[in-house]
Amino acid sequence: MFLGVDTGGTFTDFVHFGADGLRFHKVLSTPADPSRAIEQGVAELKLKASDLHLVHGSTVATNAVLERKGARTLFVTNKGFEDLLTIGRQTRGELYDLCPELPEVWLKRSDAVGVDGRIDAQGGMLHALDSASVDALTRRLASGDYESVAICLLFSFLNPAHEQALAAAIPANLFVSSSHQVLAEYREYERGTTTFLNAYVGPLVQRYLQRLQHTLIPRHLFVMHSAGGVMQAERAGEQAVRLLLSGPAGGLVAATAVGRQLGETKLLSFDMGGTSTDVALICGEPAMTTEGEVAGLPVSLPMLDIHTIGAGGGSLAWLDEAGLPQVGPASAGADPGPVCYGRGGRQVTVTDANLLLGRIPAAARMAGSMPLDRDAAERAFEQYGRSFGLGAIRAAEAVIAIAEEHMAGALRVVSVQRGHDPADFALICFGGAGGLHACALAEKLAMRRVIVPVASGAFSALGMLAGRQQSEFSRSRRMAVDDTETAVQLQSLLTELEHEAALQMPGLALSFERRVDMRYAGQGFHLMIPLADGPDIDLPALAEQFCAAHDKAYGHRLARAVEIMTVRLTAFVAGPELIWPPLPAAGTQAPCTMVDIHGAGEVCCYRREDLVAGSHIDGPALVIEDIATLWLPERWCLQLSPHGHLLLERME
């Protein structure tokens, strides 16, 4: 039996695939200990944990970074580079701001130690590691209350000998994160921040996964990582920084599968949960990046290119210093949650606004069981609206309008700002709250088609079941494409990475995807270019491939030599393909009840499970299910695909 679990800020979603087919479930998250919500869900689904192949998307690493609640970490680097993480790149978000906001200081100067010893730029031993420095380091650790150590030395990606010697000297009870194991690539600052974050969240992730393993004792426990694959829980604890986009990655895996089934290769994904909204662009496959950022710190690991904003169903409405209404990024989360949950929340949210406007029926049960208090939401909105001269209904409309503008802006970031016209794409919408806003967002971006897939309210958990077991490996080496030795060096590096993959993923029949980071000589940035399969590497063709990609991305080519900076290998074992079986033959049109929605009057409300293949609905209408709600406004129509996906189209 397979169970996908996505722990979100407000709800924990479950997708179970067993002898009876797919089952979906939601429970409120338990932020203090996310494993308690998982135990509750497994019990409510009446599953035997020891039979489960459990694939988990965890927010433990993300929350530790966002809330600044990671482990106390000692940063170890070369003498003279102790301020590496503080100085950074000295970039400014606003170039001409005369009073720029200072970057956050993640590391106290007293928590950084420099050691004597140096590897040179060719990987040779310039100065041996000083034993006195190593002794001083161990004394510092003995006298401090550190939980973890991050080691990042110059040019360790060429020669890790000094990092290995330091790691061997550190007491076994401490979590050790060495940069040559986390990110064997050039750029000291990015390698340093990634290694530091791995040490910062590593002990928390390890403890959480060990507790989950010992409590549930599943047959297998895998964790989804930011590149859209899954890894064994033991390795996830060691490489915790790879889990920072663990949950949202599952949604993109499933969205890509739906696109293949429907023949849609150009998709904008919109995942709105209780706490945040995640958006991404899919052209055949989701885009990858090695230039991610979390809480202002770069994370240079391969990850799906997902843009996240603090806008969800639980996003709090508030007034700024000028008395103007704002929404998010702070969220009511699962505890206390929106006012209408009746769990002590006092500040109105997007969910409260949707309930007050009737888009969530007052009789609905959140997650299938939790009643909602519309009267409490109305009283809260009366108080909120009074502060800036609006009644409860108008204030709720303002909250919806502001939240939708934030979300439309996020979709523009991944489309318009990257040279794509949203009108050429279909919007694939998922997350428990996504269907309430999908049509409005599509209209803002001049999009005509929206897809609301099967299990949209637990879609990321569904995608986790299809995640392939996958690991990423890389090595930085500067190689000129026109050098006759480059093909041999490149093949040697790929062989080395394949051997490393075999050691880390023993007993598996591995397949490989190969890429290289390339640039024009002298540039400070690169483009990731896929390598063709096969033993022979055609360097002139590879150079032309890069030049064409550069022309497409930046509109020009340069008369400069081309060089390879980093070699990348993805090792994987293909996972099960998501296939939605056809629905039974069409029967009678689904029945509906009438509900009152502000601005639309009485409209039909359908249960999604009552819809049959070929069902056609003209808006305005509501389509509800236990794990999600869809608001179909006027001028939109809906048709149920043969496999159960809701296909929405804007009418003229």
TrEMBL record:
- Designated name of the protein: N-methylhydantoinase A
Domain named Hydantoinase A/oxoprolinase is located at 191-469
Q: Which InterPro entries match?
A: Hydant_A_N (IPR008040), Hydantoinase_A (IPR002821), Oxoprolinase-like (IPR045079)
Q: Where is the Hydantoinase/oxoprolinase N-terminal domain?
A: 3-170
One Pfam family it belongs to: Hydant_A_N
Q: Which GO terms describe its molecular function?
A: 5-oxoprolinase (ATP-hydrolyzing) activity
The residue ranges crossing the membrane are none
Q: Which GO terms describe its cellular component?
A: cytosol
Q: Which organism is it from?
A: Mariprofundus ferrooxydans PV-1
Q: Which domain of life is it from?
A: Bacteria
Kindly list the biological process annotations in GO that this record carries.
Answer: glutathione metabolic process
